[in-house]
Specification:
Chain lengths: 401, 401
């Protein structure tokens, strides 16, 4: 039996397909792992299989994975040199099958759905999650229903619809749509795998396992801290990463957790604002406005859970302004060859901000989670002013040069 | 010393940065490997390092690779079932750092440039090669000059310019531009890494090594043939794949070469047309017109070399029509969760064509090379008619469903 637990009221209950929330306090519930002995299968091919004991599945089926995970961890040497940073690595999640980290959650949620006999799935998305959920639905032969915000760019919608999903552009409040999706799911037998789906969150743990394997145990034992910066929208990704590192700690593989730093855009920073105030409550962020569309979520459903887990584990929240995001976005591409979306540039923006303020611990090692591809956020660079693009013809070519 | 050889006149000469063509016959020259003993370093992390003895580099530096290669080989079970196909796998090259196979060539060509002390590079491109070359130039700190065709969509240009390259939109004949680029390179000290660059081609060999490792030796020993279908534009990719399988054959790892099938769009099929006529000469294809922009090259510089290598190795060329390409493109996404560009769908279109004509050998195993991402060819799906996209508001949502 699959059990969910609420970290706020310690309540446990069996998993119900259409309702991942605590009946007592309304918080998103998480997967409650069995207490049996778990171990690492070191000879398995992928990190998901090596750490399969920690996933909420009877069996992880790699043939359904579309090749998720195993993404590169790249030292960003040019930016390190330019700004005098300590060792900084980018975990490039844009190398996933649908070009974002969402695939890691989707592959686990979809395999759980197969286990439970579900054949209709759905999600709510502003872009990356729609494409990821629709692609995996195509692969396993499920029908897929996707609700998107009315103002979602057509390109992002088409990039999900191409997988055969039914897409509904919904006018109205996004938070309201989030709650309504579960009602609709219950009535129509559709399992909605939204941002804080408990199985999706378990899938994000695999990124932590990979970072451990790629950096090696010594990085976790060093005196100076290891810091992991991640963009935060609904907060499912951040929660998954913390849980993944906890698994490694429980196994005795790392002596302490790395310092997790969730990053939001200052133009939509409900969790960062609550963290700074020392509050446990996340309030709706008024008039969100940022180029980092992928993390522009004024009512993050996992916000309070994230605050609690961050405080328990010595992590923190930050936010960064539009100019800082644009600058970091350009640096990632022009100095490191990584074309990510603006949301994915917020971790670098945060590190540069800490450096400027002399708050970056001496000798720290830093991992930036690069969550999504710039190819899905071309609107962020449509103003080609700072880019060097010139016209010529064969005859005038030499002059133009 | 790095030596180039011409397969047509058996001529050899030292490599010159700005001139990869045979002084006798004008054909593109290829890297002439040393005759020393070569072996596989089976404990190395990536295929490029395991087979480093076969690459034209003193040392393959993985830290400059941006995480290239190691792409998934995915069995396309739903399409197999729908059409009664034999075992068919998609080698998903869209998982590369800039979302196309070009990265495999770029990483080798750029490392060779470092070895040779070059710091300025350039390329000519309709899209994927521009992004790939510009990204690696950013990573290694080179300046990068990119010539694109005048009618290249703005999105594709921006997706390369973001890496800091200088982009020139050139009006005029593409074939003329190809030749002119080498002149400009010579005068300005810029190494142009165009489609048939000899080191770029060596990089494509690694795909063959990976296919061998992923399928296992038995697939190459089976009675029924192993067939590898690849989209063909300038033909550098096809030439590289054949050379990679030859390396495996020379090592005694495979008893014979797989059957390579180059695929073009019928709307621009200069090499396929020459192959069908039994000709050694590739003539300019008049009025090219196809949705598969990435392979719309009416004057492929490697065409005649490809014809020769295909004939020597028992391979062949095919071409497929626009309806076939569109259908295969939709199948890849909606049945297999792989959103590729139309050019990348031509291999599946070719397999389905052979199946319809009962020309697919019984029990054959098939590998389709999926060369580039659909995210860079959104114009191919801008007509959303066959996609299911509907509007609603929170109140009418249930009715719309």
């Amino acid at each position: 039996m699959t059990t969910l637990e609420c970290l706020f009221c310690d309540r446990r209950r069996p998993f119900e397909i259409y309702n991942p929330f605590c009946p007592a306090c309304g918080a998103p519930m998480l997967f409650a792992p069995s207490r049996g002995k778990k171990s690492v299968r070191s000879s398995a091919t992928t990190a998901a299989e090596r750490f399969a004991d920690f996933l909420p599945l009877k069996k992880y089926d790699r043939t359904l994975s579309l090749g998720v995970g195993g993404t590169p961890l790249l030292r960003i040497g040019n930016v390190i040199d330019q700004f005098g940073l300590p060792e900084v690595y980018a975990k490039n999640e844009t190398a996933n099958p649908t070009a974002s980290f969402k695939d890691r959650g989707t592959v686990v949620a979809v395999q759980k759905a197969i286990e439970l006999g579900i054949k209709k799935i759905g999600t709510i998305s502003t872009g990356n999650m729609a494409g990821s959920t629709a692609a995996y639905a195509a692969k396993v032969g499920f029908s897929c229903l996707v609700f998107v915000k009315e103002d979602t760019p057509q390109d992002k919608i088409v990039a999900a619809a191409i997988y055969g999903a039914s897409i509904i552009r919904v006018k109205g409040d996004y938070g309201g749509l989030f709650r309504k999706s579960f009602e609709i799911g219950r009535r129509r037998g559709i399992a909605f795998m939204n941002s804080v789906d408990p199985f999706r969150i378990e899938g994000y743990k695999v990124t932590s396992y990979e970072i451990f394997e790629q950096l090696g145990p010594a990085a976790f034992r060093a005196k100076a801290p290891l810091m992991v910066f991640v963009p935060v929208s609904a907060a499912g990704h951040l929660i998954g990463l913390i849980r993944g590192f906890r698994d490694l700690h429980d196994l005795g593989l790392i002596p302490r957790l790395p310092v997790l730093v969730g990053v939001q855009a200052s133009g939509c920073a409900p969790i960062s604002r609550a963290f700074r105030r020392g509050s446990d409550r996340v309030e709706r962020f008024p008039n969100p406005h940022t180029i980092a569309h992928a993390i522009s979520n004024p009512t993050p459903p996992g916000g309070e859970l994230a605050l609690r887990l961050l405080r328990e584990s010595g992590g923190s929240m930050m936010d960064v302004g539009e100019t800082e995001i644009r600058r970091a976005h350009a640096l990632m591409a022009s100095r490191e060859g990584i074309f990510c979306d603006p949301a994915s540039a917020t971790p670098l923006a945060a590190v540069l901000k800490l450096k400027r303020r002399r708050h970056l611990p001496q000798g720290a090692r830093v991992v930036l989670i690069v969550t999504g591809s710039g190819l899905k956020a071309m609107e962020a660079v449509v103003d080609p002013a700072p880019l060097d693009i010139r016209p010529a013809d064969l005859e005038t070519l030499e002059e133009v040069l």
